[in-house]
Amino acid sequence: MTQKKSGTTAPRKKKTSKQLVAMAAVVLLVLLYLSTLITALFDNTVSHVLFRASLIGTFTIPLLSWVYIWMYGKLTQKHTIADYELPDKNQIVPQETEAQEENQT
């Protein structure tokens, strides 16, 4: 019979492409902000260009990663965190219902 060792770890799960894109986006943003901060501290002539790039990257990198995750979900017919779902109008929170009834009387 084989026995499990108490010090062994569970096998690692394979990273999905969504996780890789999210990690790459975080790494890109951190590197972009660090490079902008370092050049601004040393008063380099390129600091205004890197500041502009970090401003643009602050919006475009998360947007592009969201679009990728959203398209991945649409193409594979899977629900992702990037899916936008409107709340159901028939579902009302009970606290809101009580407050509305008090206002009507």
Please, could you describe this protein's structure?
With 105 residues, the protein is mainly alpha-helical. It has helices spanning 17-41, 47-76, 94-104. It has a domain at 17-83. It contains three helices and no strands.
Give a quick precis of the structure.
With 105 residues, the protein is mostly helical.
Radius of gyration: 24 Å
Our measurement of the CA-to-CA distance between the termini, rounded to an integer number of angstroms, reads 74 Å
Helix and strand element order: HHH
Low-confidence spans? none
Question: What's the rounded overall pLDDT mean?
Answer: 76
Helical fraction: 55-70%
Which of globular, elongated, flat, extended, rod-shaped describes the shape?
extended
Number of helices: 3
Specify the biggest β-sheet. Answer: none
Can you count the beta strands? 0
Oligomer: single chain
Percent of sequence in beta strands: under 5%
Which structural class should the secondary elements be placed in?
mainly alpha
Supply the key terms:
105 residues; mainly alpha; 3 helices
What's the layout of helices and strands?
Blueprint: H1 17-41, H2 47-76, H3 94-104
